């Protein structure tokens, strides 16, 4: 039995799938087989998960191949094959990226570097970041950027989505995505309610080549300004009523496995 959807907009009753591998094996023939299956399941929208080079710089301009945030090979031609074939069956193609992530560095030893504050990478200032108190070894606390470790992969340094400098920076990078790939929209992701507070109006200085923060004013994270299309563990879930979007994706992690609205 086949159902028929006569909606004029795909977002009226979205059926959302995803793709997540973009290796050299994703030829036109292989991609067509996968898209035929997605079409058989009536997927009206497809998320391109972990396609990007770095969270703060999704696409390396002029490159035909790059490593994704998990250090896997990505071929631009494979992404283009998916977009072309999905568009042929009427599906919308949504590129995934974090709203507030900066991808950290890998050191010469092949391990992720983990400075307290990632400042100056690709023109990004840690002053735009999510700065909060962290417990120090031996007691006491200091202020530094929230970091989301990913094991052997580069850490994610979390930015403040209400900081206008960060918003302007990310806006320019997102425009580049649309200039180089024929995506239909942006699947905006976030990391859930990681901490309770953030600090603004900080004083900073450099010690041993690293930026150090002091002072500042504390704010609860519920005051974060921003819009999340992918609501994780209820963080800012009321924002779906503030900004219109085609679809909202809720991920309920272990602490929220019985939550619903």
Number of helices: 3
The rough form would be described as elongated
Distance between the termini: 31 Å
Residue share in helix: 10-25%
Task: Output the strand order for the largest sheet.
Answer: 1-2-5-11
Average the pLDDT over all residues and give the rounded result. 84
Major β-sheet profile: 4 strands, parallel
- From the alpha-carbon coordinates, what is the Rg to the nearest angstrom? 20 Å
| Low-pLDDT runs | 225-241
SS-based class: alpha/beta
H and E string: EHEEEHEEEEEEHEEEEE
Written account of the structure:
The protein is α/β, with parallel strands linked by helices and 261 residues long. Helices cover 16% and strands 30% of the residues. It contains three helices and 15 strands. The strands form six sheets. The protein has a four-stranded parallel sheet with strand order 1-2-5-11. The relative contact order is 0.14. Residues 225-241 have low confidence and may be disordered.
Could you give a quick summary of the protein structure above?
With 261 residues, the protein is α/β, with parallel strands linked by helices. 16% of the residues lie in helices and 30% in strands.
Label this structure with key terms.
261 residues; 15 strands; alpha/beta; 4-stranded parallel β-sheet; 3-stranded antiparallel β-sheet
SSE blueprint and pairings:
Blueprint: E1 16-19, H1 28-40, E2 45-48, E3 65-67, E4 73-75, H2 76-88, E5 92-98, E6 101-103, E7 131-135, E8 141-145, E9 147-150, E10 153-158, H3 164-180, E11 185-189, E12 197-207, E13 210-220, E14 230-232, E15 249-251
Parallel strand pairs: 1-2, 2-5, 5-11, 14-15
Antiparallel strand pairs: 3-4, 6-10, 7-8, 9-10, 12-13
